[in-house]
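Explain this fold:

***
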Amino acid sequence: MARLILFLALLPFAGTAQDEQFKQAGVCARCHVISVVEWSMSKHRAMGVGCVECHGASQGHVVDERNNVKPDKLPREKAIATLCNSCHDKPRNRQDCQSCHHAHALVDPNKPAKVADVVAATPAPARRLPDVRGLPRKITVAGIDLVLVEGGEFDMGTERWPNAKPVHTVRVNPYYIGIAEVSAVQWRAVMGAGAGAGNNGTGAASNVSWFDCQEFIKRLNAGAPGGGLRLPTEAEWEFAAHRAGTLGLAQMLGGVWEWTGSDYRPYFDQNAEPARLKVLRGGSDADTPDLRDVAFRHGERPDRRLRCNGLRLAKEIQLR
């Protein structure tokens, strides 16, 4: 009920000059509904003081959704007064602001506000996923068989592997993904003999670099009306891997490591150095079973060819 009240109260404010502030509050309101309602009734909102100003950007906390990662700043007891004093020059009680004010709302805690006074702020309702009705479930482009992935939200990552933390919610739009890894025969038909030929010319294409894959895709698209073939993003790959059985996908785990289009960097690390590696997913038959994990991430130089590295393709959908 609280979420519904908050949602209805927010709509009039979408599109105003305070959109960014509303947007941030809306993110926080996914969990902290009451705190955002309290904040919305205060003059903090009018003065441009939102969640970030008091609690920091807290990006790790925002994406964690399990509260394992705390906000950057979380003042308690006397620390609240210290924070208040940084803006308020002449408080009546510098030691205990909460004796007169609520920490978020700045209202008298003994005089509850009316629902009509709630002026909260969030962005407009989350946009819906693009409509895929009418699209074929399976297609073949330049000899590559692909299946439709309707898109949605899922929990990406795992607490099991350090480079796959934290678990966070990701939204992916609809796309097509290859039912199988690109075969050595398919590779050879486009690129000729050499890298990618596989073992005796059969099985999955392997020993290919990320740059080799880009050239292969470029040639495929040049000969295919509409083109749109590419490597899947890391999020698209993991989303499909969780649904491999339902989608009828072969060897998402095992076979060969599959190049993705994503840079290899820590999730949500704003201070990470520019990525020099690309992400591979899925593990190979040569790896131990624990590495054949839907969330395990491996990074490799895009110019490097290894016998266990191959690819699976994806295709863009023209969104409506």
Remarks:
- The domain at 138-315 is CATH 3.90.1580.10 (paralog of FGE (formylglycine-generating enzyme)).
- The first strand starts at residue 138 and ends at 141.
- The mean pLDDT is 79.
- The CA atoms of residues 229 and 315 lie 4 Å apart.
